[in-house]
Amino acid sequence: MTEQTTPQAEKPPLLTRIQQSVQRSPLFPGDDRERMKMVMNSLILHIHPSKVSKPALKFNYTFGLGGLLILLMTVLSVTGVLLLFVYTPSPDAAYDSMIALQTEIYFGNLIRNLHHWSGNLMVIVGLLHLLRVFYTAGFTRPREFNWVMGVSLLLLIVAANFTGYLLPWDQLAYWAVTVGTSLLDYIPLVGEPLTRLLLGGPEVGAATLTNFYGMHIALIPLAIFAIVSFHIWRVRKDTITVPRKFNEEADKEKVTTVPHLVSIELVFALVWLALLIAWSAFVNAPLEEAANPAHSPNPAKAAWYFMGFQELLLHFHSVFGAIVIPGLGLLGLALIPYLDQDMDSIGVWFHSIWGRVLTGLSFVLGVVATFGFVWLDEVWLDFPGWLPFLPSIINNGWVPLAFILLILYGYYELLKAFGSKTCEARQALFTFLLSSFVTLTLIGIFLRGEGMALIFPWS
Ligand code: HEM
How far apart are CA 408 and CA 333, in angstroms? Predict the structure, then answer.
């Protein structure tokens, strides 16, 4: 009765009541320290299994690249939110907010640099992670769909970088986005309306800045977070591939995730964070003079990750350079797990010793052949001149593409004739195309001068 009349006086404070109910809960038995450990463990065990096979901890298997991507995503989210306090997405104010960041705001420059460099690094690390998975056959059953999700993540990472590129509203940003979006114009039928939709008008302007800002701070990050959650969930479900030579030992040799894996991840994350901060403290993100739509720089280049495509445009009909060839490449990349399922080489770098030799050889061949092609196209190759009676989409599109496909097919058959297994020959072909794309990108970045003319360092 007394209890009913003075309930307030006897009730412990809310915090104590919560603590007591947690203590009473069968979910958290034991003392405070144990409880804390359990909460942390259950958080960690959402992304990791409770035990992992010891060989999978070997650093030179994954190189921690997937984890590094998660770290970069975290750095980008934190620095991105901080930047929002200063940045104004309008052509009149965007550039000034960049200057304010660099000169008036405490640590503003460091935050901007961290955001800029982490975003660019994410493109490179995303590609390296893809290569790690490819060369260790980590895409094989049941991980095929997770590979496809990975490919879409790589596209989203590039899209996030590209939309962010415009935001400083300087000359570099304005013209790189003008060149980059002009690639879309070449899509037959829908190209022009699509570009207009993206730009919010016929050319890059205030509406483009608003569109890119919305995509950069909301749409693309949300899509990345959703797909990464799915991606990690699948890795957790399917388990990470284990190097073949350890397969039998893998089940026997298991260690607990906490502390064995988690402590490695923590040290790795701290080292990378320190490196990123040190780099960003000394190397500034580029910022040129304010955007001037009336004055185009010469040469006007796309962002570095699009330079390979801009280079393609110099050699092929625009529809082929901007759409057909990149489209075929992307389709091939997404379909890799459905074309090649050599279950024997799961977890083995480059399939075999012969696979390693072929990969190295194909990489060098790819560099030499691409340089040769670019140079020959400059001085001698002239399909449109040799076949003037055909429309340019044929003599400068279909014909050179057929020619290149024939060379690739010949190379593939040659590799097989020399006793390579199908998976080794396909890996060699992939490497050849990869090194060719990297070479085109480097040529575009370093060897193209005024009017996009080929300029050698010695000329
Ligand atoms: C935001 C981007 C990404 C994040 C955060 C991410 C994260 C991860 C993590 C943490 C793992 C566990 C193993 C490891 O660290 O290597 C993993 C595995 C995997 N990733 Fe990614 N990834 C991303 C992009 C990609 C891309 C671009 C691809 C390929 C197209 C890809 C395909 C895969 C596959 C197939 C696995 C399983 C591999 C195996 O079991 O050996 N991921 N990813």
Answer: 16
